[in-house]
Amino acid sequence: MQQQKSEAGVVSADGVKDGFQLAKESSATGAVAMLVEGRQRDLAYVPEAGARIDVITSSDDEGRYIIRHSTAHVLAQAVLRIYPEAKYAIGPPIEEGFYYDFDVGAPFTPEDLELIEAEMAVIIKENQRFERAEVESDEALALFESQPYKTEIITQVAGGDGADGVPGADSEAEAGEVISIYSNRRADATEPSFVDLCRGPHLPATGRIKAFKLTRTSGAYWRGDEHRPMLQRIYGTAWESKAALEDHLHRLAEAERRDHRRLGRDLDLYSWPEEVGPGLALWHPKGALVRKSLEDLSRAMHLERGYEPVFTPHIGKSTLWETSGHLGYYRENMFPAMKAEGAEYFAKPMNCPFHVLIYRSR
Known about the structure:
Blueprint: E1 3-5, E2 10-13, H1 19-25, E3 31-36, E4 39-41, E5 52-57, H2 61-82, E6 87-88, E7 93-94, E8 97-103, H3 110-125, E9 129-136, H4 137-143, H5 148-158, E10 178-185, E11 194-197, E12 211-221, E13 230-239, H6 242-257, H7 260-266, E14 270-271, E15 282-283, H8 285-304, E16 315-317, H9 318-324, H10 326-330, E17 338-340, E18 343-347, H11 352-360
Antiparallel strand pairs: 1-2, 2-5, 3-4, 3-5, 6-8, 7-8, 8-13, 9-10, 10-11, 12-13, 14-15, 16-18, 17-18
Helix pairs in contact: 2-3
C-alpha cells in the first residue's frame, strides 16, 4: 500500500484501511472521525483506495460538533435508563453544545439533571461502542415502533423529504429508503444498550467523551409548532478536555456577570416594561447620563474625523419609501403604515433616503 501525506491530518490512501489505521499513520492527533471525499465518516469506515481523507480531530470545530452529538446520544440513553417510559425526539449538536428533546410529561428539575449527569458518567465509563447500521425504512419503523417522534421522522425521510420541517433534525436522517441508525453497545454485551436514528458520524466509543455538563432546561414544541406536543429540552455542552470545558464555563459566567439586562436593572440604568414593547427601553436618570456621555464621545470622535452631523425625521411618507424601494422589497418587515391628513407614513427603515434628499436640496 502507498500512502501520501501532505498537511497535518490529511492522508490519501491507496490501500484498504479503516479510519483508525489511517489516523494512526497520519500526523493528526486526537482523531475522532474523518472526511472522505468531503463527507464525514466514522473512523470504522473503510474508504475506497485512492480516496481523499481528511482526519477530523477533537480540537477541530467539526470534531467538537461530533463530540457534542455523541454526548447528546449518551444523554438520551441516560434519560431512558432513569425514565423508561420517556419518548425521545431529536438531539442535535449546536454551537458550543447540544440538546435533546423528551416527552416525559413534566419539566425536568435541577435534581433531575444531577441524576442524569451521574448516569451519563456511568455510560461513559462503560466505554460503549457507537456502531452504525443501515436498515430499510420498514425495519426502522419496527425498531422504533414505541417512539412516535422517531417514526414520524422515518416516515418523512422515507418519503424523500429528509428531515425538512423538523428543526434540529437534519443530524437525524437524510432522505431515502435506507435509514441509518447508531447502536451503543458494551464490549461484553450481545444486545445494544441504546439505539437512535442518526446520520452520524460519532465517536468510536462513549469513553472518548472527556468533559461535559448539562446546563439548563426549557420547553419546546415538537417541530416548533404550538399545536403539537410540548417537549422537555435538556441543554448541555461537551468539550475535548476538562480544561476546555472549564474555559467555556468561565466565559459563560463572565458573560452572565456582564449581561446588560441584569446590569441595567441592578445599576438602575434602564428598564424594559412589557407595556411598552420588546426592545423598547425606558432610560432612568443614571442611564440617561451614561447614554448622553457615550453619545457626546461618539459625536466628538466623528467630528474629529471629518464627519458632518445631520438630523432626520423618524417617519416619512410612503411615496419616499416606494421610490427608495424599501416598500417593494421590505414592507413585510416594516412597521405598519400610519395615516394622517390623507397621507400614509412609515417609520424609517433606513436613513439613506433622507440623506439623498439633503444632497438634492443643496
